Amino acid sequence: MIGSSTYTQTLSSARAIGLAAYTASVKDTRGSDINPAGLVGIKDWEFSASTYAPTTSGLNGFIFQGFSLGKRFLENHAIALTYSPGSVLEFVVPTSLTLVGAIPTFVDQRISYQERFSIGYAYKVTNEFAAGLGARSIEEKITDTQFQLAQQDSTKPFSTFESEYTGTSWNCDLGLTWALNPQITLSAVGRDLVMITKSELPSEFAPYSLPKKAVLELGAATTIGTSFRVAISAGTNKAGMIGYEWNPVHGVALRMGVYSSADESPFIYGIAGGLGWSYEFLEVDASYLGFLNEEKRTGSTSQSQFNPSIIRNIDLNAYTRDRITLSMKAVLGNVRESLARIEGVEILSGVYPSSYEALAYRPIGKVRVKNISGKPIQAKASFYLEKYMDAPTETQPVLIDVDAVQEIALTAVFNDQVRKVSQMAIHEGNVYVSATAAEEYDDRFQARVLIHGKNDWDGDVYSLRYFVTPNDPEIIRYGRDILLQERDSLDDVQTDLKPFYKARKLFDAFAGKLTYISDPKQSGDYVQYPSETLQLRGGDCDDMTVWYSSMLNSIGISTAFIDVVPPDNPGASHIYMLFDTGLDPKFGRNISENPKRFVIRRNS
Predict the structure, then answer these.
(1) Which of 147, 364, 389, 597 could be a cystine partner for 592, CB 3.0 to 4.6 Å?
(2) What SS3 class is residue 271?
(3) Distance between CA 557 and CA 385 in Å, rounded?
(4) Is there a contact between 196 and 172 (Cβ–Cβ < 8 Å)?
(5) Of 77, 30, 37, 34, residue with least CA distance to 175
(6) Average predicted confidence (pLDDT) for the chain
(7) pLDDT by residue (tens digit) across 406-451?
(8) Count of other CB atoms within 10 angstroms of residue 511
(9) Do the strands 323-332 and 45-54 form a parallel or antiparallel pair, or are they unpaired?
(10) What is the DSSP string of 306-359?
(11) pTM above 0.85, yes or no
(12) pLDDT attached to residue 442
């Protein structure tokens, strides 16, 4: 029995071979069949190819393994196609037929297994979680040499011919990755969860069919410091792997991995080593995989030892031979190297529609940005909330040293749509970080932003001003109507006192129609806009203060809020209002004989 090309897609990546436990480290097309969820790491278009050379004597030269082509689209989706013409596991069972007085005739039987095609799709659910689906074509072929007796007048006693029998199927996998934090990644892969059979081998060849059993493989990888990565994986097929990757200098990687299985002897049956080099859009890797027990890996064995049931993986099984593998990956399209990474985002407060303009100057949150480039960078951040912002609001560039983490304050310029939010709701906001003048983003983080209802107030007396609307047509009309009715009585007032008497007339006209009403129970800080107070004819202290301030401002009288908070009873807080009479302080007694009824400001 002779086994030839034993490598398939899973071992087509030299990086995967060197690291061994690769399920939690897949980030491109080279490992799409190992864990399809890792395809979300594709930047744009990506091409990879590989070749290998068996080190067993008698098989010399490199064999083309195959290539993969992947594309990232719609930001969170990725797809990859793989073609592997060099992925074949083949066995030859030699037998001979000899008739008396004739030359022996060989009637070999060839058994081959192939995985030529695969397709993978991945979706980034969140920045931390991704899921992927993969499908692999499996072909089982039996080539059986048969003979038949010739006619009596023939010069040959018999002739031979070949018959081929093929069984094909698509085996489907599900992969998941979860980044607990920037240093730790977990993975889960279910292999052969669904098997779509297109054709089967005849019943007499059923013993040659590959086992059909689903396998679950769990993996984890952690980055220690900035240059060392350790990975481990184990599956229900009683196999496990562990490996590490070390980056001594930027662009160079050294790898070593160990393969183990309860079905192998010894338990640790394989050791791999690898070397990687990368520069901008190109990455080249080399690896060597050697096995400690070569009993079944020499290229021939007895027919009695041939057991297809132990071939759970076409590329990595008891008949796989020592190999040197070379692979390369090229990123096409967007090839800019990421210089920065988002370590975390913190939203400091919700958005109050009444005071949304202030967020253009006051931070809505902050983002922690790490320099991962190996050289100082200038980074800037942007914040964007769809529908409520016309464009992302960008910060000024910030200098970040090598491996340093810098906090960048986020501001937001909202549009008028935010004023139409009637009830409190949670929306998804996007935080972008770029480290160059280019438009591409090095990283993206989605953070939840709480937008309060348009009547919600944060309790800060300085924010209450945003509820004052002196330019509201209803306020202007109401104030003008009252003053028009009182025109005759105001004509008799001396000029210096007219602002004070106008304020009095406006207050008296409305105060008698007001009803004091507490805020709704669901909100302790609920403020009505002046037009709402005018319509409802009621409100609490802040509602009436805002209404009166708006009314006075509409006729050119300046106002100020006074926040009274008893230290021993904050729950009894109250809002008062001052307005500018325009009087010289020496004429204060024209307002009241009690000096506590007015306040003299020392300057403007």
Answers:
(1) 597
(2) strand
(3) 37
(4) yes
(5) 37
(6) 85
(7) 999 999 999 999 999 988 888 889 999 988 743 455 677 788 889 8
(8) 10
(9) antiparallel
(10) --GGG-SSSSSSTT---EEEEEEEEEES--PPP-EEEEEEEE-S-B-GGGGGGG
(11) no
(12) 66
